[in-house]
Amino acid sequence: MILALAGGVGASKLLRGLAQVIDPAELTVIVNTGDDVILHGLTICPDVDTVIYTLAGVADQERGWGVEGDTFNALQWLGRYGRECWFNLGDRDLATHLHRSALLNEGRTLTEVTDLIRRAFAVRARILPMSNERVSTIVLTDDGPQSFQSYLVRDGARRAVRGVIFEEIERSRPAPGVLEAIETADGIILCPSNPIISIGPVLAVPGIREALRATKAPIVAISPVVSGRSLKGPTDKFLTGLGHEVSALSVARLYHDFLDLLIIDRLDTGLLPVIEALSLQAKAAETLMDNPERKIALAKETLVCLASLTGWRR
Ligand code: FO1
After folding, report:
1. Considering only CA atoms, which residue is closest to atom 21 of ligand 1?
2. Residue 222 C-alpha to ligand 1 middle, in angstroms?
3. How many other CB atoms are found less than 10 A from the CB of residue 40?
C-alpha cells in the first residue's frame, strides 16, 4: 500500500499520475482539512474535494479546484440575498457540500462522509481526512488573524504572513485509519504541497509526526519550491513569513526528522549536497507537472525512489 499525504491542487497532480501507474485500490491518501470552511451553513472541505474530483476525472484542470464545466447560478442567487460570494462555489460542487453537511448533521463523521463521497464517484483510492475534529488554519497578518480561505481567496494573499495557527489542533486526533496507514504502508509520499499550510496541519495532528518517525516504511517528499519560487499558490509568502528561505532546502529542513529522501527539481541540482548534509537523501528530477505525461513520469520516479529505499530504513 502506498500512502500519500496531500493538500489540494499541487498534490492532486501527482495523485492523478500515481493512480495511473499503480492500482488505485492500493493507494491511500491522508488529506489536509485545515483549509475547511463553513459558508452559507455548509461544511466545505476544499482539499478533500480537490483530491476526490481529480481522481474521479471531474476536476477543473485549469483552475485545479472545483468541477469542470460547472456553472455558478446558485452563487449568483446567493449574492441577490446579500450573502458573501467571494468563495466561488459551483452548482455541482454545491451538491457535494449540501450532501456532506446533511450527513454530518445526521451524526456521521467526516471520515464516513468522505468515504461515501469518493465511492459515489467510483474513486478506488482510499481518502482519509487527517482528523474528524475541526481544525482551522488561521493566518496572522498585520491586520490581525484571518481564516485561511479569507486570507487566500477573499483577500488574494496580499498581506505579509506574520504567523500561522492551527486552531484546536491540540484537541484533534488522527482520523480512524490514519495511524494504521502510516504504520503499515509499504511507502509514504509527501506530495508537492505547501509544507506550512497544507502538509503542516497534517503533521501537527497529535500522533501523526511521531508515527512518521516510527514507521518502517520509507518516506519520500517532493519539493513544491523550484528555483526559489513556489510552483503553485502562496508557499513562498508562508515560508518567508515564518522565517524560512524560499528554497527546497527549507522543505528538507521542515521534514528532516522523518524524511528519507527529497525529490527536488533539476533546476535546483546545486542544492543536492546541502540537503544531503542534513542526513537525508536527495534526488533531482523534472517536477513540473504541466501535462499528463509529466504527472505519470514524476509518479514513476517517486515510486523508484521509494523502491530504492525499501529495507533501508532502520
Ligand atoms: N480558490 C480560489 O482561489 N478561489 C475560489 O473562489 C475558490 C473556490 C473553491 C471552491 C471549492 C473548492 O473545493 C476550492 C476552491 N478554491 C478556490 C481552492 C481553495 O481555496 C484552495 O486552493 C485550497 O484550499 C488550498 O489547497
Report:
1. 46
2. 22
3. 18
Chain Cα centroid distance, residue 16: 13
- Is residue 226 within 8 A of residue 193, CB to CB? The reply is no
Q: Is the pLDDT of residue 314 over 60?
A: no
pTM over 0.85? The answer is yes
pLDDT, average across residues 67-73: 98
Q: Percent of the chain, pLDDT > 90? A: 96
CB 9 within 8 A of CB 65: yes
As a whole number of angstroms, the distance between CA 219 and CA 213 comes to 10
Distance 46 CA to ligand 1 centre (A): 6
Percent of the chain with pLDDT over 70: 99
How many other C-beta atoms lie within 10 A of the C-beta of residue 22?
16
Residue count of the chain, please give it: 314
Which residue CA neighbors atom 14 of ligand 1 most closely? 46
Model confidence at 312: pLDDT above 70:
no
Backbone angles phi, psi at 285, to 5 degrees: -150, 170
User: Rounded CA gap, 295 and 137, in Å?
Assistant: 29
Cell numbers standing for residue 41: 451553513
Distance 234 CA to ligand 1 centre (A): 13
Angstrom distance (rounded) from CA 234 to CA 10: 12
Q: Quote the CA–CA distance of 283 and 305 in Å, as a whole number.
A: 8
